[in-house]
Amino acid sequence: MTKRTLLQWAVLSSLLASLPSIVNAAPAPASHGAPAASSGAIALPPGTRIAERDTGRVLASMARDHAIKTVRGNGKRTLYVFSDPDCSHCKRLERTLERIDDVTIHTFLYPLEGLHPQAAVHARGVWCANDRNAA
């Protein structure tokens, strides 16, 4: 698995973790009396919170020194954000996050060059700035 693929999975896990409600996984129903595992489905105990389990594993393996850290207030809550410096939706999210107090935000630059050809150049500019939070 490439680093890019791992980062894409980290983004997906982060997005799942940010959903307002987490869907609780239940064992897959058996078809025709056969065990669920025979259909290729993975049976999990009721109440297993997949997004939390996988997100914790991914976040534990991430290098936080590769993120831009912003602390507001006492920083007791933690958010992980993946942001493309040229993405209008990312900018809107960042403006929204400015209104949240008592939070530590770890922003990982994630340039989407397929959508924004200059995103990597702009991300390097942000990363190399004296004040990354202001860049």
Automatic annotation (TrEMBL):
Keyword flag Signal: yes
Domain Thioredoxin-like fold as annotated: residue spans: 72-133
InterPro entries reported in the protein's UniProt record: DiS-bond_Isoase_DsbC/G, Thiol:disulfide_interchange, Thioredoxin-like_fold, Thioredoxin-like_sf
SUPFAM superfamilies tied to this protein: Thioredoxin-like
Localization: Periplasm
Gene Ontology annotations for the cellular component aspect, listed alphabetically: periplasmic space
Location (main, coarse): periplasm
Signal peptide: 1-25
Family: Belongs to the thioredoxin family. DsbC subfamily.
Name of the molecule in the record: Thiol:disulfide interchange protein
Natural source organism: Burkholderia cenocepacia
